[in-house]
């Protein structure tokens, strides 16, 4: 695979990020979007432990509707990116690599689902949960960070 200048792939480490010099306040937009995202999570009850338990007990459609709408939005977005050859904000082409199925995805999905069911949190709303005062979720956040580190450490030895 040839690599064009300023083109990123999901499995490589970007080296041109240091070439971009920005002021510290340019990152405020990410903070504001994150706060808005957290407010939406709270208002939609996505961070509710009780809503998550209802989902895993098949007692409510609420979370399935949220997840389903996210999947639908993602599908439409990917289709639009491919159809109109949309580029990043920096003008770089967006390359979506084909994915091959393997049994590690089943194991990973099961581990993720069990962790989600036990803790009542997936990585997206962790900060929103902490922001609402559920400080015990800090343990889940630290566990997620540690799990990510463990995966990175053993990545080359795992089936992909």
Automatic annotation (TrEMBL):
Organism field: Chryseobacterium turcicum
Keyword Transmembrane: yes
Statement: the UniProt record of this protein carries the keyword Metal-binding: no
Residue ranges of the TM segments: 30-50, 62-81, 106-128, 134-154
Record protein name field: YeeE/YedE family protein
Keywords for this protein: Membrane, Transmembrane, Transmembrane helix
Record-linked InterPro entries: Sulf_transp_TsuA/YedE
């Amino acid at each position: 695979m040839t690599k064009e200048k300023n083109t990123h792939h999901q499995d490589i480490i970007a080296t041109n990020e240091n070439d971009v010099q920005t002021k510290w306040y340019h990152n405020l937009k990410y903070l504001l979007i994150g706060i808005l995202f957290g407010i939406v999570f709270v208002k939609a009850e996505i961070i509710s432990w009780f809503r998550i338990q209802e989902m895993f007990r098949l007692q409510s459609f609420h979370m399935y509707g949220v997840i389903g709408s996210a999947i639908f939005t993602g599908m439409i977005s990917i289709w639009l990116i491919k159809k109109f050859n949309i580029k990043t904000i920096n003008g770089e082409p967006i390359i979506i690599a084909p994915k091959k199925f393997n049994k590690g995805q089943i194991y990973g999905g099961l581990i993720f689902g069990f962790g989600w069911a036990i803790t009542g949190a997936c990585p997206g709303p962790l900060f929103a949960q902490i922001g609402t005062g559920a400080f015990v979720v800090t343990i889940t956040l630290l566990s997620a960070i540690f799990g990510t580190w463990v995966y990175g450490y053993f990545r080359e030895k795992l089936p992909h």
